[in-house]
Amino acid sequence: MVSISLVTRQQQTILFIGGGAVAERRLRPFLDEPCQILVISPIVTNAIREWAEQGKLEWRDVAFTSEVGRDIINFHESCQLVFACTDSSEVNEEVAGWARKHHFLVNRSDRMDDCDFTVPSTLTIGDIHLAISANSVGPRINKLLRMDMTNRYSELQIALPSLKIMREDVKLLIPDIEERQMFWRTHLTEHTLAAILKGEWPMIEEKLHHAISGLRIKP
Ligand SMILES: C[C@@]1(CC(=O)O)c2cc3[nH]c(cc4nc(cc5[nH]c(cc(n2)[C@H]1CCC(=O)O)[C@@](C)(CC(=O)O)[C@@H]5CCC(=O)O)C(CC(=O)O)=C4CCC(=O)O)c(CCC(=O)O)c3CC(=O)O
Ligand SMILES: NC(=O)C1=CN([C@@H]2O[C@H](COP(=O)(O)OP(=O)(O)OC[C@H]3O[C@@H](n4cnc5c(N)ncnc54)[C@H](O)[C@@H]3O)[C@@H](O)[C@H]2O)C=CC1
């Protein structure tokens, strides 16, 4: 299993066949991304219906058939990701076969062993995006880990914006990559992280500012 981060494009279509609870959960993270979302399903959840009404996605209230598949190919050329999340294994099987014929990657909600990609639990702390895959150990473990990490790393949120600015400052002040790496290895250590997580960011921030000021006055 390889974890990668997906960057979507405005003209890319993410396709959902089925519009139940699982589709809603998988679809939600795409709402804020630059992409088109197409849902093919006779029935959808209230949330999906509302998103369709608000123009956040396109919903076609039809069952998946090969004719619908042809239509999708004609109008959505750049649809590389397909979520087969109906409550029928036969339909999911048919969708997966159709999608692979067109070289699309498939996620099947009923069979992890027939997925080209799976969906991890995710949490976002400022610019940090953490993904948790448990290789089918069970969604309970994913959820517990996610909640634990959310609590554990919440203090980082305060530090990240300043750290980002400091990184740019240091880049300018130390043009050499190896020297720069040395600077960060010295000043941003495991102990520093532990201190930030304990709520000591103001003190760490001052120390880092001091170290960066030292670079400015170096001959
Ligand atoms: C393989 C995978 C699917 C894939 O990616 O293709 C998969 C498989 C299955 N999940 C099942 C059940 C539930 N899954 C959830 C929730 C989540 N499941 C998610 C991911 C994945 N689930 C992928 C593995 C990811 C990995 O570990 O790498 C999350 C992260 C993302 C998301 O789904 O959006 C999200 C956690 C969100 C969080 O962080 O809280 C809940 C709800 C809950 O727990 O609250 C329930 C129970 C209630 C319900 O029925 O809804 C069953 C049926 C099991 C059975 O029948 O017993 C299967 C099928 C099976 O195991 O075969
Ligand atoms: N991976 C996961 O996290 C989980 C996976 N599952 C699996 O996912 C399946 C779906 O779960 P839910 O969303 O809870 O079911 P659901 O019953 O809420 O939704 C099923 C959806 O499939 C649609 N559908 C049925 N036939 C269709 C067709 N021919 N074409 C297009 N759409 C069609 C229905 O209109 C409905 O919107 C379950 O049957 C189970 O196999 C279930 C729970 C969790």
UniProtKB/TrEMBL annotation:
Chemical reaction(s) catalysed: precorrin-2 + NAD(+) = sirohydrochlorin + NADH + 2 H(+)
InterPro entries (alphabetical): Met8-like, NAD(P)-bd_dom_sf, Sirohaem_synthase_N
E.C. no: 1.3.1.76
A Pfam family: NAD_binding_7
NAD among keywords: yes
Pathway note: Porphyrin-containing compound metabolism; siroheme biosynthesis; sirohydrochlorin from precorrin-2: step 1/1
Keyword terms of this UniProt record: NAD, Oxidoreductase, Porphyrin biosynthesis
Domain of life: Bacteria
Gene3D superfamilies: NAD(P)-binding Rossmann-like Domain
Enzyme class: oxidoreductase
Protein name: precorrin-2 dehydrogenase
Keyword match Hydrolase: no
